[in-house]
Amino acid sequence: MNFLDYLASIDWGAALVVGVASIAVGLVLLRFMTASTSEIGSMIPGATESAARMLDVRELPVESWVCAACRSVNRPTATHCYRGCGTRDELARDLPIDPELLGRAVNGRRI
Questions:
Q1: How would you classify the pairing of strands 105-106 and 92-94?
Q2: What is the pLDDT of residue 33?
Q3: How far apart are CA 71 and CA 63, in angstroms?
Q4: Full DSSP string of 25-94
Q5: What is the structure's pLDDT at 21?
Q6: What CA dihedral angle connects 46, 34, 79 and 53, to 10 degrees?
Q7: pTM of whole model > 0.85?
Q8: Kind plus residue range of the DSSP H or E element containing 106
Q9: Is pLDDT at 36 greater than 80 in this prediction?
């Protein structure tokens, strides 16, 4: 049996149906997980505070900076906020000086 005979013996219709079904199930699961993550996080008491404490304990480079608009921690080499808020020159706050910028949240959203 050569390679062309092998390719001819594959049921391409069934393979296509299984592939499309797998992708559809994966997209539904991804949507569910994305939608429920913030809801589950807001149902767990103290989850935001413990996440902020873990972030403070984590070894971050001293040159990291915090975006004043969205309070995200950005890498030292980043010239723009990774969430698209603006440039480092406009929005950067030093990480060690502004610990209040990290981890404060209301109803699962950062303020």
A1: unpaired
A2: 81
A3: 16
A4: HHHHHHHHHHHHHHHHHHHSTTHHHHHHHHHHHS---TT-EEETTT--EE-TT-SB-TTSS-BHHHHEEE
A5: 97
A6: 10
A7: no
A8: strand 105-106
A9: no
